[in-house]
Amino acid sequence: MTKIKMTTPIVEMDGDEMTRILWKMIKDNLLEPFIELNTEYYDLGLEHRNETDDQVTVDSANATKKYKVAVKCATITPNGARMKEYHLKEMWKSPNGTIRAILDGTVFRTPIVVKGIEPCVRNWKKPITIARHAYGDVYKGSELKIPNAGKVELVYTAKDGSETRELVHEFEGSGIVQGMHNVDQSIESFARSCFNYALDLKQDLWFATKDTISKKYDHTFKDIFQDIFDAEYQEKFKEAGITYFYTLIDDAVARVMKSEGGYIW
């Protein structure tokens, strides 16, 4: 049997523990007998990430930008126990978070529908694809433990030295605080990824946030999505016979429970 030749390499990101064994079995039994594999290999096992000060994760992401496609195995994001178990130099960040930040990526998760395995919600007949922004937010969040009473503020310092301040909380005792960020450029990329994916699949696109509570952060997402849709995608969606609509997350959940599926959320 003639093997299929790969003209362009794909990035191969090996992982941790059992996933290394499973990935080798997949290659040995399902891929290599039929394909002349052409991969650029990166070992994202926790020991090697530690040896390279996590540079291997950055290198694998940059290689993915070059070749446009990668296969990544599951990896460990270490906690305190893993620090001791693997004798780590530091508690390295999530490899997924690092890679997504470099790729400015969007995560699409679509369940596999298997005959004979019924969904928990009986009226779901088609997959519901969840689209998630993969830049900033908690993956790049800054956190502080507040030891005792005091004031926490958000401070923006412009290049001219002027400051804008927003009170987060007046603490009367101990607590915690987290700061998150995003950038318009990445949100615009997320929006276009979602619109293009919907057009590729010929499926409706739902977008839901809590902009009634998050009047600046979530509302910015809502506004950018709507502006891009109106300017670039409205006619394309009409021609494809699909729809885009925005609703509050509360309403979206209610709609999802009553739907048959078959859309991107």
Which tags fit this structure?
three-stranded parallel beta sheet; single chain; three-stranded mixed beta sheet; 3 domains; globular; 265 residues; 8 helices; alpha/beta
Question: Care to describe what's here?
Answer:
This protein has helices at 18-31, 46-51, 55-67, 80-86, 95-103, 184-201, 217-240, 249-258; strands spanning 4-5, 10-14, 35-36, 39-43, 70-72, 106-109, 128-133, 142-146, 150-157, 163-171, 175-179, 205-209, 244-248, 263-264. The longest helix is centred in the last third of the chain and has 24 residues, at 217-240. The strands form 6 sheets. A 3-stranded parallel sheet has the order 4-2-5, with helices on both faces. The relative contact order is 0.10. Strand 12 (205-209), helix 7 and strand 13 (244-248) form a beta-alpha-beta unit. It has 3 domains: 1-103; 107-137 and 181-265, no CATH class; 142-179, no CATH class. The protein is built from 8 helices and 14 strands. With 265 residues, it is α/β, with parallel strands linked by helices. The model has no long low-confidence stretch (mean pLDDT 94).
Based on helices, strands and strand pairing, what is the structural class?
alpha/beta
- Average pLDDT: 94
Q: Which spans have pLDDT < 50 for at least 5 consecutive residues?
A: none
Q: What's the number of helices?
A: 8
Largest sheet: spatial strand order: 4-2-5
Percentage of residues in DSSP E strands: 15-25%
- Helix-strand pattern, N to C? EEHEEHHEHHEEEEEEHEHEHE
Number of beta strands: 14
> Which of globular, elongated, flat, extended, rod-shaped describes the shape?
globular
Please tell me how large the radius of gyration is.
22 Å
Number of domains: 3
* Helix content percent band: 25-40%
Tell me the distance between the termini: 43 Å
Q: What's the story with the biggest beta sheet?
A: 3 strands, parallel
